[in-house]
Write a structure and sequence with these properties.
- This is Sugar kinase.
- The structure is a single chain.
- The chain is globular and about 55 Å long.
- Helix 7 links the parallel strand 10 and strand 11.
- By secondary structure, it is an alpha/beta fold.
- The longest helix is centred in the middle third of the chain and has 16 residues.
- The strands form 2 sheets. A 9-stranded mixed β-sheet has the order 5-4-1-8-9-10-11-12-13, with helices on both faces.
- The protein is built from 10 helices and 13 strands.
- It has a domain of 118 residues: Ribokinase (UDP-N-acetylmuramoyl-L-alanine:D-glutamate ligase, 3-Layer(aba) Sandwich), CATH 3.40.1190.20.
- The structure holds adenosine-5'-diphosphate.
- Adenosine-5'-diphosphate (ADP) binds next to helix 8 and helix 9.
Length: 313
């Protein structure tokens, strides 16, 4: 079976359990939860039994260890997570505003992952993997971005495949330093996984159908549009499938897109019927939002089947 690689930040998330105005007053917090978009994504891939690995860098501390242990337990090859002595793993504090929106306080500027550089272990992993999952946010850090670009070119040249989740705020897209590498990645992309307005990042002058058509005309094989609580849609040349949202109680939406993407990719790589892969990924996204903590809601196949059975019942 093809082996999936991703490269990027591993961090922990600490979550406020009461809605409020900020962190000015003491409040109950829960965590640390393993986190980082690439980590959540690859954890979901591992839980579905797809061979996979992550390249990252953490401090020699409990925040790094909690991630490594979780990912290893869920089937991810963690040999590419370098442990940097004397450095610290990044963290993020999350709180929910009264209106349900989220506010993040990041502590990653000086995290160990900021000093990630290619090394013999990461080079060997790039050589042994057949698929790379790219997060657009990687290109906001020049060294990480260069590593991701190099891995994408190597894997693609060898006949491997690329999935791409922009995972970006539109303001960042307007930064010329970001634009060039993102355009280069899109040109190599086989599976594009935008969320909401990200569909228009590369095709701003179209409506939804026009943007999809233009993306497919660029040679992208599959476009999967994540629609949050409204479900998801899949587009290939001559094919459209829609997944209606599964009714769930949304407790924590962080990580839903990564769980969705990891699940979809696993089934897509196995050659599962696209509409069925979408249905399973939609279940993974729905289950993800029902758990507090961004990686706590990643699913096994049995858990996906259970949520889909419940939907039928
Ligand atoms: P992202 O985190 O990338 O913005 P979304 O928020 O769109 O991703 O969530 C990814 C997928 O998870 C959605 O397309 C949908 O399938 C599922 N999902 C997200 N939120 C909900 C919800 N409240 N109810 C049911 N399914 C959801």
């Amino acid at each position: 079976m093809q082996k999936v690689l991703t490269i990027g930040e591993v961090l922990v998330e600490i979550v406020a359990t009461t809605k409020g105005d900020g962190f000015l007053a003491a409040q109950p917090l829960v965590g640390p939860f393993p986190s980082g978009a690439p980590a959540i994504f690859i954890d979901q891939v591992g839980k579905l039994g797809t061979p996979c690995a992550i390249v990252s860098r953490v401090g020699d501390d409990d925040f790094g260890r909690v991630n490594i242990e979780r990912l290893r337990a869920d089937g991810v090859d963690v040999s590419g997570i370098e442990i940097a002595e004397g450095e610290t793993t990044g963290s993020a504090f999350v709180r929910y505003r009264e209106d349900g929106s989220r506010a993040f306080l990041y502590n990653i500027r000086h995290s160990a992952c900021g000093k990630i550089r290619p090394n013999p272990v990461s080079a060997a992993l790039v050589d042994s993997c057949d698929h790379l999952h790219v997060m657009g946010s990687a290109f906001s850090a020049p060294e990480l971005g260069a590593m991701v670009m190099d891995a994408a070119q190597r894997i693609k040249t060898r006949g491997g495949t690329i999935s791409f989740d922009p995972n970006l705020r539109p303001e960042l897209m307007r930064d010329p330093a970001m634009r060039a590498p993102l355009d280069a990645i899109l040109a190599m992309t086989d599976l594009f996984l935008p969320s909401g307005e990200e569909l228009f990042l590369f095709e701003p002058d179209h409506d939804e159908a026009g943007a999809v058509e233009a993306l497919l005309a660029r040679g992208i094989r599959t476009v999967v549009l994540k629609r949050g609580a409204k479900g998801a849609s899949l587009f290939q040349k001559g094919l459209r499938a829609d997944a209606q949202p599964i009714p769930v109680e949304e407790l924590d939406p962080t990580g839903a897109g990564d769980a969705f993407g990891g699940a979809f990719l696993s089934f897509w790589l196995r050659g599962t019927d696209p509409a069925e892969a979408l249905r399973l990924a939609n279940a993974a996204g729905a289950r993800a939002v029902t758990r507090l903590g961004p990686m706590e809601g990643t699913s096994t196949r049995v858990e996906l089947d259970a949520i889909l059975q419940g939907q039928k019942g």
